[in-house]
Amino acid sequence: MELRHIRAFIAVAEELHFGRAAERLHIAQPPLSQQIRQLETHLGVRLFERNTRSVSLTSAGEAFLEPARAVLSGVEDAERAARAGGRGEYGRVTIGFAGASSEAALPVLARAVRRAHPNLELDMRGQLYANAALAKIADGSLDLGFVRLPIGAPGIEHQVVEEEELIVAMPLGHPLAAQETVALRDLAQEPFITFPADSGSSLHAITQQVCLNEGFAPTVVQSAPDSYTILALVAAGVGVTLTLTSCMHARQEDIVYRRLSDALPTLDAAIAWRSMNSSAALRAVLDVVREVYATPRRVDFDRFATPAQS
User: Fold this and answer.
1) Which fold has domain 166-260?
2) pTM score of the predicted model
């Protein structure tokens, strides 16, 4: 039994006329009659009572009609699902992110994807810092990841989502908090709180590099696994930290943020993916990414910073 047999049966059962059923199926009447005979032979029952004047369903035909319709409907549903999957409307996309720095960008993207593709699943995986996310993107175990530029890995494409600044966070009442801006060299004797050296955090590497460029290695007194904990330790007076404008929202009590007076480049946050990833679902999400982040966002520094006290 083939789908053409089921389609032929349903057409005749609904039309109760071989000529009209043949027209509906865009075939000649003799092939239609042959398909019905083949189906009856396969099932071992007569499906129609027919003579020169009328066609009617037998009891076997009546019993067969609804299951036949269900089979055909299921096949049509499967065809539609396959085509939708090919367009990226179904499927799953994995996204890696790293906590506070992705907190603003990730919900915006997730909402936009759900609006555009409500049947597409986003599998969001936290605590994946830039280097770890890039490694998983490269080996195919992650589709998308929030990372920080520049990207040295080959075969990786990206879309900038946010233009960020490197800033210093210090406890409320710190002597340097009275200044509008702070120079890195003024932090040479300060205790630092950072991400662990082996965390894969690009911010840890950036902190080390910019301090060394000013002639000192930061004195790290404590490490913490995320920006929320690091900023809580700063607020508690344990030390200072270099952070990013995208993390300022994570802590506003008992803490002061200041811009650095040093000539430092903008640190762009981006979404990265593997060029050779052919997933239709990923391509659908990337269309949304390009629309949502056509203009990279910037954090309003003054909204979160505490004014300098005279």
Assistant:
1) D-Maltodextrin-Binding Protein; domain 2 (3.40.190)
2) 0.65
